[in-house]
Amino acid sequence: MEKQRVRVRARVLSLVFCLALLSSWVTADAEVYQIVVPPIAPLDPIYKLPRISLAEKEEVLFEAIRESHLNRQGYLLYQSYLPFSVNVNDPNYQLSHNSADLPAWHGYWMAALAMKLAVEGPSQEVEDLLHGAVKGLWTNFEATGVAGLLARAYLEYDGDVPLPWMATKETDPTKYWQKGENGFWFRNGVAKDHYSGAIFGLATIIALENRGAISVDPDTRMLVHQTLLDLGHYLIDNKYRIIDANGNVTEFGRLDDWAVNGFDGLQLLAMLRAGKAIGDEKCDEEYRRLVFFGASRTIATTLGALGDFYARVGRENAFGHFSDDQAIYTNAFALFLNADQKDEEVIEDVQYALEKMWQFLRYSLKSYMTFIQSLFSGVSNRERRRALIILWLFPDDKRAISDLELEDTHSVQPIPNQRINSHYWKTDYFRKASLTAASGRIDVEYSGQDYLIAYWMGRYFGLISKDQANARITWDDSSEIEPVPGELSP
What we know:
Layout: H1 2-26, H2 54-68, E1 79-81, H3 91-95, H4 102-120, H5 124-144, E2 153-156, E3 177-179, E4 184-187, H6 192-210, H7 218-237, E5 241-243, E6 249-254, H8 262-277, H9 281-292, H10 295-313, H11 322-338, H12 344-361, H13 367-376, H14 381-393, E7 399-402, E8 405-408, E9 431-434, E10 440-446, H15 449-460, H16 466-470
Antiparallel strand pairs: 1-10, 2-4, 3-4, 5-6, 7-10, 8-9
Helix pairs in contact: 1-10, 2-15, 4-5, 4-6, 4-15, 5-7, 6-7, 6-8, 6-11, 7-8, 8-9, 8-10, 8-11, 10-12, 11-12, 11-13, 13-14
């Protein structure tokens, strides 16, 4: 039954690509169709809007991660149960590992730390956190017992039976906890998006070092390189399939259709180009092979067609994996960071794909994607301003709110209208959250790596000036809060 469901989803995705391609061929001229422009909902926040500057918010969310979101191995726990303590026997500490996407969001934490170093200069505290973060990622291999095999989550626990909250093979057959190696349990069924995020973090460190923007300790550098090569060689050796410790290809673990699927091809090129950047011959050879056989042209064709599809039908009416949009931009950014002049044609293909995606995603109010788009082909001053407003609106307290009323809409909902989220750049931005009489803050806190990566990316590339970072915001306290009149309208 499970295998049948996977095949059905694969066929649906293939059908979407085929329909998008057919639609593009039928109306090749972009001027002959009307782009569906979604309305932007009025601001109706579920939390008190921050009044601190972007730089102060960075300090608050950075400190929250340090205090409540790092396990003993230095790994980011994006969902923390409070009060939090680094005690392996503390139920809250154990429960904070009950997640399914740890490698992905941990990669954004690593990238944010590297960019923070690039902007602020050397800091022993940040460098120690970065080394710990890379070690925390590498510990996945210690837990699974396979070099290059990530887990959805891992926990230092040497018991013989699962803890009460752990998903089992009976309750969740595609991503359950199992006893691993070296005193760890891990949650299996890791997906390609998790590899994407993890590799993005490592690729960012490598690129910033090669650009001369940072200089990490030799031990950290060696660990970064080894971890990336473990991941890359694992995928190459398994013919671009994620094969779990149980011997099965994971539910979302196939990247071997890169020749016809630009989503997978982009992820592989980003990974292989990072390996090439540190002089690995195996990654270099594979990168050249994939490019020779048209991987970048497939990116332009299939993702470009997908962008046209979004523009015609509206993103909210397309298939609902909004995290795929973020993964596309993340992989494009990782490739961009490590590319040089010899990669010009590859980058042009990726740029074409993003320009097509941006036809509709420009209305998504995602600061992270706006900044990446600006590096490839530029964005309007209004779009850049809108990205800053969203960061000003971003919560400075990411504790969850209970008993919200959720509604699917056809309007783009600014971040304050959405439920408190583990990672805002992958959310369904058409889903509105509203407070109810029973709503209230609970002792579950999400980490702010999503804010940190967008903030430090903006600072590093000059998209957020020092004055803008330190500017304080005063919101209108009336019932209809509007940050800057008309700024959020299409």
